[in-house]
Prior knowledge:
Layout: E1 2-9, E2 18-21, E3 26-30, H1 37-47, E4 77-85, E5 97-105, E6 110-114, E7 117-119, H2 121-129, E8 140-141, H3 145-151, H4 154-165, H5 168-312, H6 324-385, H7 387-491, E9 503-504, E10 509-511, H8 516-523, E11 530-532, H9 535-545, E12 552-554, E13 572-573, E14 578-580, H10 585-592, E15 595-597, H11 603-609, E16 614-616, E17 622-624, E18 627-629, H12 636-743, H13 755-789, H14 791-908, H15 912-918, H16 927-943, H17 951-1012, E19 1017-1022, E20 1033-1038, H18 1052-1069, E21 1074-1078, H19 1086-1100, E22 1104-1108, H20 1112-1116, E23 1120-1126, E24 1132-1138
Parallel strand pairs: 3-22, 3-23, 8-21, 11-12, 15-16, 21-22
Antiparallel strand pairs: 1-2, 1-4, 4-5, 5-6, 6-7, 9-11, 10-14, 13-15, 16-17, 17-18, 19-20, 23-24
Amino acid sequence: MHLKSLTLKGFKSFASSTTLKFEPGICAVVGPNGSGKSNVVDALAWVMGEHSAKTLRGGKMEDVIFAGAGDRKPLGRAEVTLTIDNSDGALPIDFTEVSVTRRMFRDGASEYEINGAKARLMDVQELLSDSGIGREMHVIVGQGRLAQILESKPEERRAFIEEAAGVLKHRRRKEKAQRKLVNMQANLDRLTDLTGELKRQLKPLARQAETAQKAATVQAEVRDARLRIAGANLVELQEKLTNVDQQARILAEQVEDLTERLEEATATTVELEAMLERATKESDAAQQLWFQLSALAERVSATVRIAADRATASPDIPYNGPDADDLERRADQAEQQQAELDQAVEIARERLESIREQVEEHEDALKQADQEHLARVRAIADRREGVVRLLAAEESHRAQVTASKAEAERLEEELELTLERAHTATSEHATLLEDIERLTAERAPLEDKHTRAAAEAGAAESRLEQLRTQQRDLERAVSRWESRIDTLKQTAPKHAVQLDDWHPITDFITPHKGMEKALSAALGATAEALSGDNVAQALERIDAEHISRTVLIEASTATEWRMDAQLPKGASWLLDHVDVDKRYARPLTRLLADVVLTDAATAPAVIEHDPRLRAVTPDGTLRGEGWVAVGSGTLAVETAAHIAEAAEELARAQADLADIAGTLQGAIQAAEEARIDAAGAKSALREHDTHLESLARDAERLAKQALASTNEHERMAARVQQAELRAIEAQQQLDETLDRLARVEDQEEEEPSTEERDAAQAALAQVKAMDMEARLSLRTAEERAGQSRGRADQLRRQATHERQAKARHEQAMASRRAARELAKAVERNALLIQDRVADALTNAEQERARTASTKSTVSAELGKAKDEVRELQQQLNKLSDSKHASDIARSQAQVRIEEAQAQAESQLGVPVAVLLSDYAPDEDFDKGAELARLKKAEKALASLGKVNPLALEEFKALEERYEYLAGQLADVEKARADLNGVIEDVDAQILQLFTDAWHDVEREFPAVFGTLFPGGQGRLVLTEPEDMLTTGIEVEARPPGKKVKRLTLLSGGEKSLTALAMLVAIFKARPSPFYVMDEVEAALDDTNLRRLIALFEKLRETSQLIVITHQKPTMDVANVLYGVTMRGDGVTRVISQRMSPAKN
């Protein structure tokens, strides 16, 4: 038996249908990383029943379906077909070739097929289990599996041997039997409980049958009494339903009338709401316009202030720079002086040339005389010393002349360079000085601009802070008045009762200033009265809750009335000094119609004139005919007046706070603009100062550089002069040497005369003194001319610069004058705009007040309308509640009647018509007597206990069921004993198979370990040898040269070889038709790899090996080589190559 082919369709990276045809022996699958080699191993495991997504290197099982790559779209299913050559009959199926197919869809559905026929996962597992292939898949060694083998628990290692020994199908049989046994135990427990329960129920049923016969007589009497009582109850309920219907009709009429009133009030409310909406829009528009004009007024005011400051700031400043004409005159003088210096230089140069000619003549004469003398003197010496020394001297002097001339030329070049550097530095320094002067002149306007901007910003900030202080004061005033109102409300007298839609009478009457005590005295106890509608309901509430004395004023029933009486001079009606809400004008007018306001002296005359009147003074003294009330009255009126006064102050503070908001907004904008201008001016001044400082540093650096270059030029000129002198001296020495060589043979031995030479020397010395004086004069003249040469140009440039600076200054002064004139014009225009804005603001204020008043009026009317709607709605709700309660009562009465009828028909079994005709109460009917008769019969029936009329039938049926369940219980007990016997037989088979396999694997492991670790020791040990059914397996490995007791101390390669040793031992002990190994040799060096390949070649003799590898030695021993590649489209492709049989 061996694997014949593997076909993949849509499995992982195998998007296209791909078939791998395997051969017996070793089949190697090679390819680069990520090309899909390990997907072949996953496909083999998957088609043989693997259901762990983690084992298949995925997050979920649907990940095995090709997910798309590049231009290839995702597929909807994955399918793998494994074809096995079963010609040796290793699989328990009558086919020489077996194909196993597994198919999975995107929705998670999965299918299995065996030779094209539908199958279950269990069928596939049982088919393969006889070949040692189970759920542990020990024949497939994937990546990382070797480490898992050693790190797994001993019980998990046991599963590998069980799978190879074919124990798994027996374990499944045992597990199946155990599950049946567990289910059977549940059935057995249920049968036991049922039979016990039935046995307990048999005896009570016998007693119940006897009691049922006694209860029949008593039940007849109970039925008759119940029928008569039910008839009486039904008649009573019908009469009650008639009364409820009559009351419901009355309530419906009242609801209809109130609904019409509510609809009218609602229509009025809708109309007022529309008016309020329009008034609100107008008020908001006026408020917004006022805010905008306030902000504009503040900005215009800020503009006026700034323009006034700019109109009086920045007076004209006279120009303080040098006079340009004077600089031009100085430049002309410098040019004239330069011409004189140049002429002096030419005269000095001509004189020096003349003296140099004299020097040359005297030098020639001296030279000739000296040469003649020296020639004669040296000729004598030369004859004595020889010609050789003269020749050496000639050569030395020639070298000195050449070197001296070269040094002089080099120094001349450096002298020109130093002179050029000095001129460049001087010119750059002069240019920088001009720039510095120009920038210094430009700084004053920038500084003035910064000063003005900073002052304006400070003024704007001061104005903004002032406005913010006013805003905070107003906010504190608003908070103070709100607290005042809350405190007054808390100190106001509390009413003994709180009624819905009833309000204190002080909410609807407001005294004029100073009339609080007079009004309070006039109202007396009525000052704490409540005003509202429907006094009857309020009285019911007061009586129900036993509330103390309370005064109620019903606004809906009082009529307006004023007394017709003549008042004495100085007296007036108190009603003329109070403001009364229109809605409550009638009752309040009736309360105060007889009260006259007068002083204490006139009060008696008022009472005497008309005894019907009451006279009250502003201090609260109330007088009537024959009585006087003095002292403070109730605090309700005064407190209400204080609350109203505080509300007015609060409204005024809120209005002022709203007014200042617009002004504050304009001030914020003006301050922000001023800050931006100040920051810009400061930034420009800082940038200008930074540039000026940089130029000053550069000028200082160039001045030092020019001075250094000038000093260097003077030093270099001295060095040039010295080099020229050394060259002249060297030439003279050379000429003397040459003359000596010419005269050496003709000179006589006599001592020559020195008179001619001495005279020539004296003359030459005098001429050289004149030459030195002329040189110094020429050098001095040249230096003075050089220093004065650029002075005229510099003065002319300075004059030009001063004219430009003066022009800029005059232009700046003109700009300042123009700015002042512009500021004055802006101030004039801004004042005109300010007046216009003030007028517009006044108009806006008036419009805002008008719209606010309109809004307030409409809002008040809307509030009254809503109050009326709310009161009507509450009345309607109460009537609706009453009607609803009436409807509920009617429904309940109907339900009770229906229940009574249904009860009569269902419980008593009598139609309603029969009940009313036969059992209706007559004039002599006594319901109490009937109830007593029913109670007596029921008591007699109750003394019998529970009665079961079907006791006999139930007893017989229960007895038959008990006998049937007893037989079933015996059958279950027998089946349980049979299953326990099956489990014992399976345990024996498992024990035998595992024990044999264990001994074989235990025997093979040391040999395989020794092959992989020559000189090492390894063995397998049982954790519980006394229990072979559950014992685990431990691995002991000791590579050569190491003494380790824990597998975790082994290296990565040693762990891999140890795990391979265990697997190969299992393979050899219980061979499987094929093995799949995925890069198991990746961590091995060449030596260990060769040892592992040797084991592969041994396994090849009995099994088929499919190896995923990167190692060339492994490829060399393969019979078939499969190349796996993946292009840019993400799809795996396979090519195969049959290899020649390996010789070694």
